[in-house]
Amino acid sequence: MNSAETPSQHISRNDLHAMAYTDPLTGLGNSYRLRDKVREIAAERASDPAPFTIGLANLDGFKPINDLFGPNAGDAILCQVANRLLACVPDGATVIRAGGDEFAFVLPLVFERKAAEKIGNMLKEVLSAPFDLGERNVRLSASFGFAVYPFAGEEFEDLLKSADTALYRSKRRGRGQITVYSQEIAQEMKRATQLEQALRNAIIADEVDVHFQPIVNLKTEMVVGFEALARWCDPDLGYVSPAVFVPLAEERGFIDSLSETLLRKAAETALLWPKELFLSFNLSSAQLMDPMTSTNILSIIQRAGLDPRRLELEITETAVMTDADVAQKIVTELRAAGVRISLDDFGTGQSSLGRLRDFSFDKVKVDRAFVSRISADRASEHIVKAIIAMCDGLNLEVVAEGIEDSSEALKLKGLGCGMGQGYFYGKPADSVTTLRYLAEKYQETGPALSVAV
């Protein structure tokens, strides 16, 4: 020891090495430890490359917990996660904290996919039990990605990248998912990335189109408005379903730019319609979590010159549930400006009646899952009848979605449903075809208004 150093100041080389390889919060190894452990096992097995597995675990919904209860509560949960993982991984396994709410493990005796999935399911169960925060308990789920050496990569960096790809796919599929890396999954993720780039380019080039589906008054069968629907036909990829590209834009974080482009186009088209017709437009769950959404929407329609009272925004109950306080604020601001709010896919969520009580909606859209069975299934008929009666009592308008034939239309009319849409009344069509539809159908029965074609 140097004579100038006190015992407390003296830190050995071993101590420094241990600190450099340790996560200070949980006491687990860190990412340096993960790298060295993987390289060490790979070197041992170089002559006879027997497989082993690395895994990544990421907590689902950890950030809102951290925001709600504070960083100390978040740290307490991370320490409990570390202890649970240490207690239940197989003998010889290494557990490390990769950073944030992500953990990793090296499993020397897990040789193939089924064994990795089995471990994943066991760890998922262990992490699903409540976490103790003193006065309250918190539940979380975790997503997992696994990669098996040497099939998913012989070098540490490649193996980790494969595990990360598998984890990313799990996160895409929802909460509490388990994925083991394979070539098929790699191809799937590559296609998603290619699709993302093509869609980003299409948005910039203004190539994502808007089609319009008529919404009619069931009693008079006159059109009262149109729902705007996204359509995209790529020169290389061909027609891409909105069920594919809209969730992709949401997941990859550019749903705002897509939605704003579509709303601008839809609003500009709506200016060419008779003024009493409304425009219905869907909001994503990501937009209902962004406090700037109401400002952005009002700014777009103001620039287009569309009266806010002609705009109706459709939101799903699932989207509202993600962040109810922010969603409530957005809905309140939009309704104050004259925009109407419609609850879409009613009956398919988890607490619809509560949402109707807590939120100020103007309209409810009955999901096609009930409408499509209304003629043949007594239960569906009674459900729709109850929804219509309830909405009548709450002074809410009702639209039935997915009407495909005359028997469904007649049944809904008989039950007192006010509005409907579906292929029976008109398929989604581009703006020019929609104007032609109005010139033919609307003026035959409606007011003698000039419609630009």
Describe this structure in words.
The chain has 453 residues and is of the alpha/beta class. Helices cover 47% and strands 20% of the residues. The protein has helices spanning 13-20, 31-44, 62-69, 71-88, 113-128, 156-173, 183-204, 242-251, 255-270, 293-304, 317-322, 324-336, 352-358, 368-371, 378-393, 406-414, 431-445; strands at residues 52-60, 94-99, 102-107, 131-132, 137-138, 141-149, 178-180, 209-217, 223-234, 238-240, 278-282, 311-316, 340-346, 363-366, 397-400, 419-420. It has an eight-stranded mixed β-barrel, surrounded by five helices. Strand 4 and strand 5 (137-138) form a beta hairpin. The longest helix is centred in the middle third of the chain and has 22 residues, at 183-204. The chain is elongated. Mean pLDDT is 88; it is low at 1-8 and 444-453.
Record the SSE blueprint.
Blueprint (H helix, E strand, L loop, with lengths): L12 H8 L10 H14 L7 E9 L1 H8 L1 H18 L5 E6 L2 E6 L5 H16 L2 E2 L4 E2 L2 E9 L6 H18 L4 E3 L2 H22 L4 E9 L5 E12 L3 E3 L1 H10 L3 H16 L7 E5 L10 H12 L6 E6 H6 L1 H13 L3 E7 L5 H7 L4 E4 L1 H4 L6 H16 L3 E4 L5 H9 L4 E2 L10 H15 L8
Parallel strand pairs: 6-7, 9-11, 11-12, 12-13, 13-14, 14-15, 15-16
Antiparallel strand pairs: 1-3, 1-6, 2-3, 4-5, 8-9, 8-16, 9-10
Helix pairs in contact: 3-4, 4-5, 9-10, 10-12
